[in-house]
C-alpha cells in the first residue's frame, strides 16, 4: 500500500471510524465520509466521490458433537481422515440424516440476529467438482433458508477514540444451514494433492449480510459482534484461527446516485485484522483501477496476508453454474412454535422456536447495558469487558468479593490486569492472578492497609504466581500502612533520636 | 411351502442352499448373477441349520435362499452396479433391506445382473453383458417359436428379461432363489417380472428404506420385491417395511406385517380401468388379456369402471427430465478419488476426473448425465426441471382424484408386449427403449404409489404376460389381497425349463417347492 501515494485515488473515501489504525498508514487515507457511511468528496479534484459498498458472507462452524448429516465427531486438529463416516466419504447408497443440534443452533442464531425463522425450510444441492467435496455437491439451503430478514447492531469508535463510539446496523439477509467441505493439501514439489475429510460435512451456518458496510473497520466490527453473539449462544466457538469463522467479503465502489459497481469477492479471510485490511485494500484497488480508466472484473480473490494485498484465485476462474437442485433425500425441515405445535407430537421429534427463544442467554449488547447500569461503569469499558473472553465475569467476581466500588475496580481490571495479560499474550483464564487474589488485594487497599503504590508492588509480586496471598506479600515486604499511633510515634522518635544534630539545627532554626 | 419343509426337516437349509448354488452354476448361461457368494451363503445356511436344530428359527425367511440386485450394498460382497466404475468395489456396509433379510436368517446367494446403474429396460446394457430370459429355454416358448435354422436358433431367438432388475427376475424365474430384491424407479421391478412370469412388487415410496440402495432417482427409487407368488411378496414386504433412521424419507408410522386373506367375495371391490393405459403400441393380445381380466372381476361381482388419468401420458417425458437431473447429481460422486475406478491420467485433477468418468461409465450413463446437467443449468432450470416437477404433481393428483372417487385398485397392463428377442431389442437405443417400456409403469413412481405385476398368461409365442395392479398409498395389504385373488383365478402356468433339466436334476420342477410361504 505504501506505493500507492497521492494522486487521484486519494480523494475517494473515508469511514466514520478511520484513524491511526486504519489500513493505510502515513496519512495515505483518502477522503472522509460521515458517520452514516456516506461518501463525502475530499475536494482536491472536485470529481464525484466514490462510495464503497461492502457485504459479507460468514461461515460459522456449528459447535456440535457430530456433523450436520452424519454421526462422525467434530473435532479440530484430529489425525487426518479419522473422523469420516461412510456418508462423509459419500460412499454410494448413503443418505443424509439431519442433526437436531445443528438446527437448534441455527434457530438460536437466527433469533439472536432478529431474523424471522422459516417454519418450513428446504435443502438443495450445489454442484461443483473439487477434490475435498466427495459427493460432487454440497447440501445447502439455497431456495428457502432457515432464517431470513434479520439485523445486527455493532459499535465502533471514531478515530480510534474509545470515548467516541457509534452504533451501526447491518441487515442480515439470511442464515442457511450447509455442509462444510474437506481440506485439500497441495504438495507442489511432488505435485500431488492430499485430501483430509475430517471437516467434510461439519455443520455450517452461512450468515449473509447485506452490503450495508463501507470499510474494513466496519466489516471487522460487525464480524466481531457476530462472533461474540455466537460465542455467547454457544452455537459456534467462532475461533477464527481454527477456521470456525470464515469470512467472504464482497466489495464494490460506485458514485452516489449510480448503480452499484462490479463487485469482487475476497474469500476465506480468517482473521479480523486481515478482514479490515483485505476490504480496504480491495476498495482502494477498485478506485484506483476505475480512476485509471480500467474495469473491475467480477472475480474471486484471496487475501495474501504476507503481501498485504488481494490476488485473483486461479482455480475458481470462470463463472460457475452450480446447477442447484432440491435435495431429494431430505424432507422439508419443519419447525414449530407454541401455537403450531401439535399436541400429540413426541417432543424429541420436534423443534419449538418459542421454547428456544425463552432460553436464549443475554446477548452481548444486553450484557453491556447491564454492566453499565449495575456498576456505573462507562459504556466503552463494557465493550472492553466483553471483548475479552471471561473478562466480564472476572470483573463481576472481583466486585462481589470486595468493598471497593466497581468504578474503581474497573481501572484495576482494564489497566493492570488486561495490560499485563496482553503483554504476556495470556487469556483471562490463564491469568496467574485469579479474581479472589485480586479482590483480596483491593480489599487491603480499600481498608487502607496498603497504599495504592504498594498495592501495585504486591500485584507485581502476585504475577509471579508463587501461591502467596496478597497479605503474605505485604507482610513479607513490610508494605503495610501504619495504623498504630504509638508505633508511628516510636518510629518518629527513633528517627529524631538518630539524627540528633539535625534536630538541634532545626530547633535552633 | 419350502419354509414348512424346512421346519419339518424334510430339507435342510444347507441342502437347499447347495441345490440353488448348483442350479445357479448350471444356468450360468442366463447371466443372471454377477457375483455368486458361495462361501458366505453356505455359512449362513449352516447357521440357519443350527437354529432349526435348536428349534429356534428366526422366522419364515430363515434358511430361504435369496438374491439381491447388484445395486444394493452388501458388506464383504462386491457391489458393481454392472459398471466399470464400481467393478471390484466392496462396500463396508449392508443396505438396510439386505441387513433386514440377513437378520431374518435369509441366505444371500449372490448379486444379480442389471443395466448399468439400473439405467435401462432390458437388462442388456450392463458391463457384464445381457441377461437371458429363462423362458427362452422353456418348452412353452420352444414349441411356439419356429426355428429358422437349427444351429442358430438358440443364439437368435433368446428373449430379454426386461429391466433393469432382469437378473433378479431371471433368478427367481429359473428357481435359483426363492425371492430377490430389485429396485424400481420407472418400472424396473415390474417390467422384468412381467417378462419373466414372476410377481414383482414396487411398494409405496417411503415404506421401505433406500439406505444402501445406490440411487438412480432418489425421489422415485423403491426397493422392489420379486417372488414366485403374491403371498411370498407379502412375507418379504413384512420383513423389509418400516421406518429406518438412516433414511429420512421413510415414514415414521409403525408397519404391521400381514398375512393375506383368501378373498372369496370381491363384490365390495371397485376396480378402475384407466383408459390412457390403452397406449399406442399396446399389443392386441395384451389388450385382450387386460379386458378379460376386467371381465373376470366384473363377473365375480366387483365394480369395474373406466377411469381417466389424463396427465399420465406426460409421465415419460417428465421422467426424462427429473431422472436425468438426479442422475447428473447422483453420479457426481464417482470421481475416482474415494473409491471405484480411477484413470491413470494424472496431468491434473480435472483430466483425471474426465478420464475416470469416460472410462467408468457407459454411453447411457454419460448421456443421462449430460442431459441432466443441461436441464439443471440456471437458464434451463425453470423451463425444464420446475415444469417437470409441476407435471409430476399433476400426474400424482390424477391418481388422488381417482382413488378419492372410490376406486380401490387400478388394473392395467404392465408392458406393451411380451419379451422381445435380444437381436430385435438392441436395434433401438436405450433411451427409445426405456421410453417405450416404462410407459405403463412409470406414472406409479411419479405418484409414489404401490404397484404389482402379477403373471397372467402366456402369449401366443409362449412367453409370460403380466398385468399390473396399482393401489393407494400405503395400502399394500389391500393391493396384495386383490393381486392374490387374481393370481388364484388365472392359474399362471409353471415354466418348464428343459434347459435347466438338462443342466440339473430337475430339483425345482416340483411345484410344491417353488414358494416358501
From TrEMBL, chain A:
SUPFAM superfamilies hit by this protein: GatB/YqeY motif, Glutamine synthetase/guanido kinase
SMART domains: GatB_Yqey
GO MF entry, a single one: ATP binding
UniProt entry keywords in alphabetical sequence: ATP-binding, Ligase, Nucleotide-binding, Protein biosynthesis, Transferase
A Gene Ontology term for the protein's cellular component: glutamyl-tRNA(Gln) amidotransferase complex
Domain annotation Asn/Gln amidotransferase: ranges: 393-508
GO-annotated biological processes: glutaminyl-tRNAGln biosynthesis via transamidation; mitochondrial translation
Keyword Zinc-finger: no
Catalytic activity: L-glutamyl-tRNA(Gln) + L-glutamine + ATP + H2O = L-glutaminyl-tRNA(Gln) + L-glutamate + ADP + phosphate + H(+)
Protein biosynthesis in keyword set: yes
Pfam family name, one: GatB_N
Recorded family membership: Belongs to the GatB/GatE family. GatB subfamily.
Protein name: GATB amidotransferase
Organism: Smithornis capensis
Automatic annotation (TrEMBL), chain B:
Domain of life: Eukaryota
UniProt-listed Pfam families: Amidase
Mitochondrion found in the keyword field: yes
Amidase domain residues: 20-480
Range of residues in the leader sequence: none
GO MF annotation list: ATP binding; glutaminyl-tRNA synthase (glutamine-hydrolyzing) activity; transferase activity
GO biological process annotation, one example: mitochondrial translation
Protein known as: GATA amidotransferase
Organism, as annotated: Smithornis capensis
Amino acid at each position: 500500500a505504501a506505493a500507492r501515494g497521492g494522486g487521484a485515488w486519494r480523494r475517494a473515501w473515508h469511514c466514520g471510524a478511520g484513524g491511526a489504525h486504519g489500513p493505510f498508514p502515513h496519512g495515505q487515507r483518502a477522503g472522509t465520509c460521515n458517520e452514516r457511511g456516506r461518501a463525502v468528496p475530499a475536494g482536491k479534484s472536485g470529481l464525484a466521490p466514490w462510495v464503497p459498498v461492502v457485504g459479507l458472507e460468514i461461515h460459522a462452524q456449528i459447535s456440535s458433537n457430530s456433523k450436520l448429516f452424519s454421526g462422525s465427531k467434530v473435532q479440530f486438529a484430529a489425525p487426518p481422515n479419522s473422523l469420516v463416516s461412510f456418508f462423509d466419504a459419500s460412499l454410494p447408497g448413503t443418505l443424509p440424516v439431519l442433526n437436531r443440534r445443528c438446527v437448534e443452533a441455527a434457530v438460536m442464531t437466527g433469533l439472536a440476529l432478529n431474523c424471522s425463522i422459516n417454519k418450513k425450510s428446504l435443502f438443495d444441492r450445489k454442484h461443483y467438482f473439487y477434490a475435498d467435496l466427495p459427493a460432487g455437491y454440497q447440501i445447502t439451503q439455497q431456495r428457502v433458508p432457515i432464517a431470513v430478514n434479520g439485523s445486527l447492531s455493532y459499535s465502533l469508535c471514531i478515530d480510534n477514540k474509545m470515548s467516541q463510539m457509534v452504533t451501526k446496523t447491518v441487515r442480515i439477509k439470511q442464515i442457511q444451514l450447509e455442509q462444510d467441505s474437506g481440506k485439500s493439501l497441495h504438495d507442489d514439489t511432488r505435485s500431488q494433492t492430499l485430501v483430509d475429510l475430517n471437516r467434510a460435512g461439519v455443520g455450517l451456518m452461512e450468515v449473509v449480510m447485506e452490503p450495508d458496510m463501507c470499510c474494513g473497520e466496519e466489516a471487522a466490527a460487525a464480524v466481531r459482534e457476530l462472533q461474540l453473539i455466537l460465542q455467547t449462544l454457544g452455537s459456534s466457538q467462532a475461533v477464527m484461527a481454527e477456521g470456525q469463522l470464515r469470512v467472504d467479503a464482497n466489495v464494490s465502489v460506485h458514485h452516489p446516485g449510480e448503480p452499484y459497481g462490479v463487485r469482487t469477492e475476497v474469500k476465506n479471510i480468517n482473521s479480523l485484522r486481515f478482514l479490515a485490511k483485505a476490504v480496504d485494500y480491495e476498495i482502494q484497488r477498485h478506485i484506483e483501477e476505475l480512476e485509471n480508466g480500467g474495469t473491475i472484473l467480477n472475480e474471486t480473490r484471496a487475501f495474501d496476508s504476507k503481501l498485504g494485498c488481494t490476488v485473483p484465485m486461479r482455480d475458481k476462474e470462470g463463472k460457475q453454474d452450480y446447477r442447484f437442485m432440491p435435495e431429494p433425500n431430505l424432507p422439508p425441515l419443519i419447525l414449530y412454535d407454541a401455537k403450531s405445535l401439535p399436541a400429540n407430537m413426541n417432543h424429541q421429534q420436534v423443534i419449538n422456536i418459542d421454547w428456544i427463544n425463552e432460553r436464549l442467554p443475554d446477548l452481548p449488547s444486553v450484557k453491556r447495558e447491564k454492566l453499565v447500569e449495575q456498576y456505573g461503569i462507562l459504556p466503552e469499558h463494557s465493550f472492553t469487558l466483553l471483548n475479552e473472553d471471561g473478562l466480564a465475569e472476572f470483573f463481576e467476581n472481583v466486585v462481589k468479593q470486595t468493598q471497593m466500588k466497581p468504578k474503581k475496580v474497573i481501572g484495576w481490571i482494564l489497566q493492570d490486569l488486561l495490560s499485563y495479560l496482553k503483554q504476556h499474550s495470556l487469556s483471562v483464564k490463564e491469568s496467574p492472578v485469579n479474581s479472589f487474589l485480586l479482590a483480596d488485594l483491593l480489599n487491603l487497599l480499600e481498608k487502607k492497609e496498603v497504599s495504592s503504590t504498594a498495592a501495585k508492588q504486591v500485584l507485581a509480586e502476585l504475577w509471579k504466581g508463587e501461591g502467596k496471598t496478597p497479605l503474605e506479600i505485604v507482610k513479607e515486604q513490610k508494605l503495610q500502612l501504619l495504623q498504630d499511633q504509638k508505633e508511628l510515634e516510636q518510629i518518629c522518635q527513633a528517627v529524631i533520636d538518630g539524627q540528633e544534630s539535625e534536630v538541634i539545627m532545626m530547633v535552633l532554626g | 411351502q419350502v419354509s414348512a419343509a424346512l421346519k419339518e426337516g424334510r430339507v435342510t437349509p444347507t441342502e437347499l442352499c447347495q441345490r440353488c448354488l448348483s442350479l445357479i452354476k448350471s444356468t450360468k448361461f442366463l447371466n443372471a448373477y454377477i457375483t455368486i457368494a458361495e462361501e458366505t451363503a453356505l455359512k449362513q445356511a449352516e447357521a440357519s441349520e443350527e437354529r432349526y436344530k435348536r428349534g429356534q428359527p428366526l422366522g419364515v425367511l430363515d434358511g430361504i435362499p435369496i438374491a439381491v440386485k447388484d445395486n444394493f450394498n452388501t458388506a464383504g460382497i462386491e457391489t458393481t452396479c454392472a459398471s466399470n466404475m464400481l467393478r471390484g468395489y466392496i462396500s463396508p456396509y449392508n443396505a438396510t433391506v439386505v441387513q433386514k433379510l440377513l437378520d431374518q436368517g435369509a441366505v444371500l446367494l449372490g448379486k444379480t445382473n442389471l443395466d448399468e446403474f439400473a439405467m435401462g429396460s432390458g437388462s442388456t446394457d450392463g458391463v457384464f453383458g445381457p441377461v437371458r430370459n429363462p423362458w427362452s429355454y422353456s418348452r412353452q416358448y420352444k414349441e411356439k417359436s419356429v426355428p429358422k435354422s437349427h444351429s442358430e436358433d438358440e443364439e437368435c431367438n433368446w428373449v430379454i428379461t426386461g429391466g433393469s432388475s432382469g437378473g433378479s427376475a431371471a433368478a427367481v424365474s429359473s428357481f435359483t432363489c426363492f425371492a430377490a430384491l430389485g429396485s424400481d424407479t420407472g418400472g424396473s421391478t415390474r417390467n422384468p417380472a412381467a417378462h419373466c412370469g414372476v410377481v414383482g412388487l414396487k411398494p409405496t415410496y417411503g415404506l421401505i428404506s433406500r439406505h444402501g440402495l445406490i440411487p438412480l432417482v432418489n425421489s422415485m427409487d423403491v426397493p422392489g420385491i420379486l417372488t414366485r407368488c403374491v403371498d411370498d411378496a407379502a412375507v418379504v414386504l413384512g420383513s423389509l417395511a418400516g421406518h429406518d433412521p438412516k433414511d429420512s424419507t421413510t415414514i415414521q408410522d409403525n408397519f404391521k406385517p400381514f398375512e393375506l386373506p383368501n378373498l372369496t367375495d370381491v363384490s365390495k371391490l371397485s376396480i378402475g380401468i384407466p383408459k390412457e393405459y390403452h397406449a399406442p403400441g399396446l399389443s392386441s393380445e395384451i389388450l385382450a388379456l387386460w379386458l378379460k381380466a376386467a371381465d373376470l372381476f366384473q363377473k365375480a361381482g366387483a365394480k369395474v369402471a373406466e377411469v381417466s388419468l389424463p396427465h399420465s401420458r406426460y409421465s415419460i417425458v417428465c421422467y426424462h427430465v427429473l431422472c436425468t437431473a438426479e442422475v447428473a447429481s447422483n453420479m457426481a460422486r464417482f470421481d475416482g478419488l474415494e473409491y471405484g475406478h480411477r484413470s491413470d491420467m494424472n496431468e491434473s485433477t480435472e483430466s483425471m476426473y474426465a478420464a475416470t468418468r469416460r472410462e467408468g461409465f457407459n454411453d447411457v450413463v454419460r448421456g443421462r448425465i449430460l442431459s441432466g446437467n443441461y436441464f439443471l443449468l440456471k437458464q434451463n432450470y425453470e423451463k425444464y426441471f420446475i415444469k417437470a416437477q409441476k407435471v409430476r404433481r399433476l400426474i400424482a393428483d390424477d391418481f388422488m382424484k381417482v382413488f378419492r372417487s372410490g376406486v380401490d385398485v387400478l388394473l392395467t397392463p404392465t408392458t406393451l408386449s411380451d419379451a422381445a428377442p435380444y437381436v430385435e431389442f438392441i436395434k433401438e437405443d436405450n433411451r427409445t427403449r426405456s421410453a417405450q417400456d416404462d410407459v405403463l409403469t412409470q406414472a406409479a413412481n411419479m405418484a409414489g404409489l404401490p404397484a404389482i405385476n402379477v403373471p397372467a398368461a402366456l402369449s401366443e409365442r409362449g412367453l409370460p404376460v403380466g398385468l399390473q395392479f396399482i393401489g393407494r398409498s400405503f395400502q399394500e395389504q389391500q393391493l396384495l389381497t386383490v393381486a392374490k385373488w387374481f393370481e388364484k383365478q388365472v392359474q399362471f402356468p409353471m415354466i418348464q425349463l428343459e434347459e435347466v433339466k438338462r443342466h440339473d436334476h430337475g430339483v425345482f420342477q416340483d411345484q410344491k417347492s417353488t414358494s416358501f410361504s
